[in-house]
Structure prediction request, 281 residues.
Amino acid sequence: MLNPLISIYMPTHNRVLLLQRAVQSVLNQTYKNFELIIVDDGSSDETWAYLQDLAERFCSIKCYRVDTPQGACNARNIAIQSAKGKYITGLDDDDEFKPDRLSQLLDAYQPDYAFVCTNFSEQKNGCQSVNEQMAKDIIRSSSTLIFQNTASNQIFTETYKLLAIGGFNINLKKLQDWDVWLRLSIQFGDFLKLASPSYIMHHDHEGPRVTNNMTYAKAVEALIEQNRSYYSEQELHQLTYLIKYFKNELKFIDILFNVTSFNDLILFKWYIFQTYKMLFK
Prediction:
């Protein structure tokens, strides 16, 4: 298939102005054979009226609405289940694609990958920075996802693969994307991460966001509990140790985001022991 259909899922809730930027970035794609599936998660602003107008003007845009908000993961799953594309990827309603993103992802994808993802740029207060300094594209295994999200916030894969793992877990309150990438990689193998950032994540806006009072450490604990069968007893023991002793969320994130193997966790355990010995001697 020389020109396969690509499905793009996008949940939205009460951010119609930001949504317009995200939609326009899809319409600006150099690759044109796509369907954009937008699910309005019970918005109370002008979102649904805007989406109805879009669907009338563009045959490539499909819109659905949930009357009572059920959360972004439920909205994503509705879109995934209705997708007709051979391939699928996602976009958050406050972010945007660079014009060549779809063509870049499609060109890089191989059937033996669980998925392809890219580096991304973060923009705040007019300043833009690349999230991860990468000299070249890199193939990573599922083992790198055990301790941290080494992929990205969005991936590109064959639609059947995302359906095969059941889509997004609506029971998780945070880290839902990491959970999906982990399950995809466990079931379908290594993934490719491209060094070139073709996704822009925006942080400079005000407006409603999905929030809760769960700390990052608690969120990791919940993610592990949902995927216990993927972790060895040693890995579970070490992660439990970290979660127990690093209640400061920022410090926990800083440490966890530098862990890529069981040996790293052993070193961090030694660090924790030395720190507490110094504090309580």
The mean pLDDT is 84. The two ends are 68 Å apart (CA to CA).
